[in-house]
Write a structure and sequence with these properties.
The structure is a homodimer of 368-residue chains.
Chain A lengths: L3 E8 L9 H15 L10 E5 L7 H8 L6 E6 L4 H14 L5 E8 L21 H15 L3 H15 L13 H5 L3 E3 L2 E2 L9 E9 L11 E10 L14 H14 L8 E3 L5 H10 L8 H6 L7 E2 L4 H5 L3 H16 L13 E8 L4 E8 L1
Parallel strand pairs in A: 2-3, 2-4, 9-10, 9-11
Antiparallel strand pairs in A: 1-7, 1-8, 4-7, 5-6, 8-12, 11-12
Helix pairs in contact in A: 3-11, 5-8
């Protein structure tokens, strides 16, 4: 099987305004063309668009807007992990030999139809994701003594990182006290425990081994892939103190990459809420089950750098764009282009992308 | 690269009623489980759903409904060729080694948001696909002397075939006179020149070479794949007497399969309108450019059997299901399960699936 590498990325500022879905998407595509300056439209033989927006034929429309005539073009949706699904699709097309150069574009507007889980009748009137986050938080506090302060530390770190990321929606640091005193949403979840829907797009370019040198001398290889869907509705989520989808996806990704969790230097984890990052520390194997809260206290001295772009809490959560933006961050870090937030001494990166109360998860490892 | 085969299929009756998208989709999945009786939920490691419907998280929801916990699950949309995009995605995942057994489910309700081309502002008020079909028809008549009677023959054949297909939306034969006297839509396109949106679903099971014997002793191999997007808007369609997307997709599919057009025994072509089938005869290489009309007159003596299930005109066009239903027909024929319409002496089959005035096309060849 031939290997696949990311050659470059494109990003937009995450924001809320009146720009159309197509404007936002094309901003990130233009940025990618600027970043990978040897890339021409004729090189691109797949355009995969990740979005939960209802717009039809988006991949073909965006291709036309850029004068690309790809072999493969379609839209991919699986709620919040649409972006990582699109990346893995692009990987597969290239690995299977159906194309050489694939552009993955993730895009969303803040008013995305996926912001509420309207389809899940098992949630009764509790359609907003904050409800399940509250149950996960409470269960972890009860079982392992995790505190609201430890949860708040996730938000403090991610908002601090976001302040060093010009693309991030939030640009201001917050303190533990700010988080604890922020607006109560669903006890114990407060406003600053939550990510915010916003407008944004991210693109990455995946290229077959044989051609990657045409576009970059800093390829970032896709080394491991794991995915798992456990269920869709919240009534079928049996465990509130772990994310089985993540545990299984991580197991497969590490096995494929032949690495262990301790070897991960850069991790973009799916902090839709602070509790998700605590659970991710544990379920990705960075710490033992139950130790996530304490890990949050000492994360500055950990060997893994988590959510350097600010995560979903700091950078914002344009749903279909998130998984692609996570991958773009790992590529940016591994190409030494991350500016103030640049990580040193890295070899392995990871993205972790969830949907709908962790009913499904993606883990992708990347390396140099 | 390991080979990929279709092991079986599932279908619904194409109809219009109040059944939900999930009911319709699950009917075809249940039919697939019945047809491939050694298949259990635990075997399935990818569920890809093709639909233009706005429903979110469909692949995960359908997985849950059937007790499947797949690695890969997402929804795919690219208008009318969504189905073939999903099939090629499943092929890629298997060929790339990320999964072994993939279920592809295509489903649509008649009121699909993709039935009109609302996004194409270059069409002015002429959003209904019948407008471009009229222009294609007129251009072919002017350039090559194709007649309304020849166009009508496509409808007559496909409605005749549909009458032998219990799943087809239309069950009554029509005569050339019926077609010519049917309701004028956009000159020269009449009602019986058109396919009809309807409700319906189709599923196919794709399996890696190493495991296909577990499920069938009649594997139907995916032998060739070609896809091309030329543009999205009608203003960028430069040629009205040929479908460049189809020509390029067919070239790639034949090259990959190492076969020539003359070797195709069974072809499911995208007859959204009668003119599309005439163009397909030419652009898939069954006859020379311009001879499509005459080919329609003598098709009963041709070596290729075209649209044995009735095509989109006879079977109906549940948009996201169509590409999958085309593949299901080829598999059904090659497994000798097509009843009254069973073809004899076959080796190579083909599906041809278009979107939006042939701005994009898919060609997949399959063989035994």
């Amino acid at each position: 099987m031939r290997r696949v590498a990311a050659a470059g990325y494109g990003l937009t500022k995450f924001r809320k305004n009146d720009d159309s879905l197509y404007s936002v998407a094309s901003e990130s595509m233009r940025d990618l063309f600027n970043n990978v300056n040897k890339l021409s439209q004729n090189d691109i033989d797949a355009v995969l668009v990740s979005t939960c927006d209802n717009a039809q034929y988006t991949a073909s429309i965006l291709s036309e807007m850029f004068g690309i005539k790809p072999k493969i073009a379609h839209r991919i949706e699986n709620m919040c992990n649409s972006g990582s699904n699109a990346i893995i699709s692009a990987y597969s097309y290239i690995a299977a030999g159906l194309c050489d150069v694939a552009m993955v574009v993730g895009v969303e507007k803040a008013n995305s139809p996926s912001a509420k889980l309207e389809w899940d009748l098992t949630r009764g009137p509790f359609k907003h994701p904050a409800h399940w986050a509250a149950m996960f938080s409470k269960a972890h506090m009860d079982e392992y003594g995790t505190t609201e302060e430890q949860l708040a530390l996730v938000s403090v770190k991610n908002r601090k990182n976001a302040a060093m990321n010009p693309s991030a929606y939030f640009q201001k640091k917050v303190s533990v006290d700010d988080v604890l005193k922020s607006k109560p949403i669903v006890k114990p979840v407060k406003l600053y425990d939550c990510s915010a829907p916003c407008d944004g797009a991210a693109s990455i370019l995946l290229v077959a081994e044989e051609r990657v040198k045409e576009f970059t001398d800093q390829p970032v290889w896709v080394t491991g892939i794991g995915q798992r869907t456990m269920c869709a509705s919240f009534s079928n989520v049996k465990e509130l103190t772990r994310m089985d989808s993540t545990i299984l996806a991580a197991r497969d990704a590490y096995a494929m990459a032949k690495i262990k969790p301790i070897m991960i230097d850069i991790a973009e984890v799916h902090d839709a809420f602070t509790i998700c990052e605590i659970l991710a520390y544990e379920d990705l194997g960075f710490v033992e089950k139950g130790h996530g809260g304490r890990f949050a206290e000492s994360i500055d001295s950990a060997s893994v750098n988590v959510n350097t772009r600010g995560g979903l809490i700091g950078a914002g959560h344009p749903i279909g764009a998130t998984g692609v933006a996570q991958a773009a961050e790992v590529v940016m870090q591994m190409q030494n282009k991350a500016g103030k937030r640049q990580v040193k001494n890295y070899k392995n990166g990871l993205i972790h992308n969830l949907s709908a109360a962790a009913t499904s998860a993606t883990v992708v490892t990347m390396g140099v």
